[in-house]
Amino acid sequence: MDSIRLEGLVDRLIDASLDGRGEWVVTANLDHLRRCRDGSEYAALVEEADLVVADGRPVLWAARLRGTPLPGLVAGSDLVPALAIEAAQRGARLLLIGGAPGAAEGATAALQELAPGLDLADAHVPPMGFEDDPEELAALEEAVRRSRADIVFVALGSPLQERCILRLRDLLPSASWVGVGITLSFLAGDVSRAPVWMRRVGLEWGWRLMCEPRRLFKRYIMQGLPFAMALFMESLRMRWGSDPKGELTS
């Protein structure tokens, strides 16, 4: 995990894109870390990113137990508006890809209100199953090229958004890329984010579970909780074991 605060990451991504050397950041939560261990392709995808930051209190807790604390939370849902405000001030152009039906339009309006003067390219929302359709993939690639964006937010869910970023980033090599998951729906007001107090104490997952129990029960309860306990125990073993410099996600 990269040790960087939200404000520093915003500056770094904008600087990189305007300097023509864009970067790709993965905002990794507990489920991302779990999938880095499950034998799938996901670990290899994450290794292609330039930065991996902590998006979730359990990740911060594990790092603290490990004895290598991170400076703070870098949630994708906080990073997007912060980047939009800075982009408007510095003349960087944004592109939104994906999102639930209507989310990109709602997020566009919200970001323009939040960051007056923001330069937003036309959002591109590919249909379900586009990744297996050569014509839709070609349309997506053309939209990316035409956008001339400096910052690209990809809201396709993980791991599809990481696969797409890996495929598309060479089309805009100077742009910085961020996979943002459900953030466009938060901005559009289609999905409510957890109250601030729940986020502060690490219970945002509980709010999400209450809002979408059928979709998230397996991820959060059957997979997430056991993995979190194992990760915390491993972090403690690594802290007090013989390898004081072991990697948290190794």
Number of helices: 12
- Strand arrangement in the largest pleated sheet: 2-1-6-5-3-4
Count of DSSP E strands?
6
Instruction: Summarize the amount of helix as a percent range.
Output: 40-55%
The share of residues in extended strands comes to: 5-15%
Radius of gyration: 18 Å
Query: Mean pLDDT score, rounded?
Result: 93
Q: Could you name the ranges where pLDDT drops below 50 across 5 or more consecutive residues? A: 244-250
Classification by helices and strands: alpha/beta
Can you tell me the number of structural domains?
2
Categorize the overall geometry: globular
Between the first and last Cα atoms, what is the distance in angstroms? 10 Å
- Name the helix and strand elements from N-terminus to C-terminus, one letter apiece: HEHHEHHEHEHEHEHHHH
Largest sheet: 6 strands, parallel
Notes on the structure:
It is built from twelve helices and six strands. The chain is an alpha/beta fold. It has a six-stranded parallel β-sheet, sandwiched between helices. The longest helix is centred in the last third of the chain and has 28 residues, at 213-240.
What is this entry, summarized?
The chain has 250 residues and is α/β, with parallel strands linked by helices. The chain contains 12 helices and 6 strands.
Keywords:
single chain, 250 residues, alpha/beta, 2 domains, 6-stranded parallel beta sheet, 12 helices
What's the topology here?
Layout: H1 6-18, E1 24-28, H2 30-35, H3 42-47, E2 51-54, H4 57-66, H5 76-90, E3 93-98, H6 103-114, E4 119-120, H7 134-147, E5 151-155, H8 160-168, E6 176-179, H9 183-188, H10 196-200, H11 204-211, H12 213-240
Parallel strand pairs: 1-2, 1-6, 3-4, 3-5, 5-6
